[in-house]
Amino acid sequence: MKRSLITTLVIGVAVAIVVGILHATNAIAGFEAGIARLVSDYPGATRVVGGKWQYVFVLLIAAGVAWLSLRNPPPAGRSRNYPLFGSLLVELLVLSWVCSLYRVFFQPVPCILAVALAVAFVEAWMVFLRRDRSHLVRTLFADRLSTKEFRCVSDGPFDGGAKAYQTSAVVCDIANRRGFTNSSDPAGFAETMAKFIRETADDLIRKGACLQAADGEGVVAIFGFPNAHSQHAEDAVRAVLDVTKKFLVTGTCTLGSVQARSLLAH
Prior knowledge:
The protein is an alpha+beta fold. The chain contains nine helices and six strands, in the order H-H-E-H-H-E-H-H-E-H-H-E-E-H-E. The C terminus is likely disordered.
């Protein structure tokens, strides 16, 4: 809420400054004159809405459009916001025409530009956020999640902020590593350990875990993060049993057994 409000104010002020510069430097004078001839009677006006009021209207309209766009962000919000913004543009033209009936000249072009620029600024901001979020997800979870789980994170609400998760942690290692090390040559032990770590990590990732660590200390994986699952404990236990069964049967750890345990964490 606070972040959206700050972004709204920043976009509103930025749009007001841009429109103010264009209006003050007569950069859009030709466009303003053309619209004025279509919807208003400037020569017959006895009063004119001054520049100060114009800037106030521009700021309020830009902030309002930015707020609505941020509340219903694109692309999903386009079908809801764009018809509303189109109606606002028509209403500004109608307002200028109604004012001319009372011999008051109101120039609608700055407010129309405020609507268009506010929408453009919000679109650019959302593109920037999506790229920033995509980079964050890739940095945190590349090669740590299965393709399915990674897609869920990319398409989901994960933003990297602090949040409580209920998870299950799985820790896998060779049980009697010291005895295995003493009875095996270094090259054989390193090859066996590397194969154990590689295959265990791949298995846990395929079963939906997030790989936390895979090094000489063993393999640590987390179920239920970053995608929350109500069945994370069952998935973790099932993964532990499958990994244990696999390495006991294949005999990868010839002088020891696979030590795997599931830890529930909050």
